[in-house]
Amino acid sequence: xxxxxxxxxxxxxxxxxxxxxxxxxxxxxxxxxxxxxxxxxxxxxxxxxxxxxxxxxxxxxxxxxxxxxxxxxxxxxxxxxxxxxxxxxxxxxxxxxxxxxxxxxxxxxxxxxxxxxxxxxxxxxxxxxxxxxxxxxxxxxxxxxxxxxxxxxxxxxxxxxxxxxxxxxxxxxxxxxxxxxxxxxxxxxxxxxxxxxxxxxxxxxxxxxxxxxxxxxxxxxxxxxxxxxxxxxxxxxxxxxxxxxxxxxxxxxxxxxxxxxxxxxxxxxxxxxxxxxxxxxxxxxxxxxxxxxxxxxxxxxxxxxxxxxxxxxxxxxxxxxxxxxxxxxxxxxxxxxxxxxxxxxxxxxxxxxxxxxxxxxxxxxxxxxxxxxxxxxxxxxxxxxxxxxxxxxxxxxxxxxxxxxxxxxxxxxxxxxxxxxxxxxxxxxxxxxxxxxxxxxxxxxxxxxxxxxxxxxxxxxxxxxxxxxxxxxxxxxxxxxxxxxxxxxxxxxxxxxxxxxxxxxxxxxxxxxxxxxxxxxxxxxxxxxxxxxxxxxxxxxxxxxxxxxxxxxxxxxxxxxxxxxxxxxxxxxxxxxxxxxxxxxxxxxxxxxxxxxxxxxxxxxxxxxxxxxxxxxxxxxxxxxxxxxxxxxxxxxxxxxxxxxxx
Length: 647
Hints:
By secondary structure, the protein is of the alpha/beta class. The protein has four domains: 5-168 and 222-282 and 284-290, TIM Barrel (Alpha-Beta Barrel); 190-219 and 526-647, no CATH class; 315-407, Thrombin, subunit H; 414-511, no CATH class. 23% of the residues lie in helices and 27% in strands. It is built from 15 helices and 30 strands. It starts with a strand and ends in a 13-residue tail after the last helix.
């Protein structure tokens, strides 16, 4: 990708969703292969990925395959074979976490550093660039200044990528082991149990309850809509949407939303360009609020804020729709906030109980009984709805009319093409030139017969030449370079146009070039640290050899190897529970009567029989969630030892 191009990178659970992401304006799509992707339940067959790549390449859009788990030694050869299959299928780049892959015989496929690589510093980014990774996904926790510092340290041809939308993990990516410690399911191997979405009771060192049943590790969803231009100016060039588990409607809507915003920036600032071809038109107005979300935050991009958590519920609270007027034995009467609001059979409503729990209500039947007044009959018995009473505020978190709209075709993506019809000695030729400079010329013999009505003949020619409806092209201009008005049958012109379009598509296919693999520096770049703990996620001997070759002296095995039997950091996060609960010593500075009394003492999280300790490292402003490997999990595999001496 060129440094002046802005890339919209969309997720794909499967090939059909990926194709729609391209149709809705994505410059690139990332998708999981048959295995070894960081979303274990979002795998795809090679043939499906080849189908997606063929469609994407029509628009010069790219396909990235995720192979971003850490690998055991016995998985290295299957992973290597899969990389070759993905390359043969037309995949443009591989998103990786495990550096052991760089020690294998891989095809000349471009390599990108996954968010799982935990890239927070210029030193780490420069190292990954220097070992041959062309695109680097920065940590979600960075602010604009930190992003700019990484941009200043790296080469212009190294693309910086940043998540702009979707679910947020509380942990630095690649630095969460709670799931593995408690269940044996590793987040670094695509199988996170999402302990961060559970409710916890929080107690202090004296056993006093600080908070009860709060989802204190659950973040709101990321939304950088208002920060895109600032991110561009800081050096981001690839804008990534999270969501390889998300459905078609989400990908259509959110891709269209960011396509619209990026196009507005490109329109205002001609020094930037799209990273793929064509323009996209939508049949709907994109709205991120219509999809599942836990409310939105821009996280740390503009500095630390106290409203980043979805502490009350990890569910989708939806949008305000009205309030309860009456409650019957089989129905609820609602007054909507707007008289234009329409409630549908199948809509999902929700409300907060007196205990601040989010309760859902699915509409079986909705009847309008007055201006802005609706009687809804829930699918579940009325006795199941706790604290539902007159005056209760109600939200809608599933709008069936919106969902049905996105079930239909909802976009058109077209590449601009200029058409010129010339006459030849034996007939006519048609030249097509697209917006990328590709040209196709076709000729066909046909007798020349002067038209009786010149104006009508010209109009008919333009009409039939411009019929590009089912193709990926849109006519930007039609030139008729003819010595006089000829009568040319519509059937002849239609055939000439179809042949020219096929020739242009073939020319575009020949012209398409996959991005090149970057060469690693020689002699090998030196890693910024000479000691690696379990936090480096080294899980195979090839990864160990990689780091040793790059100057690391002591290399511990990944947490999944079960060498760490005692209490260790199971999650490292920029999110601070003390700060969010207004218990941070820095917040108390200057507050009379409070300063000096608030200390960053540990807290305890309790969920059932599970206990985790929160420790606070105030200098870098980070929180460590401490815990131990469960004995049952520890027995499930043999340790893997690399280090010379214990780190």
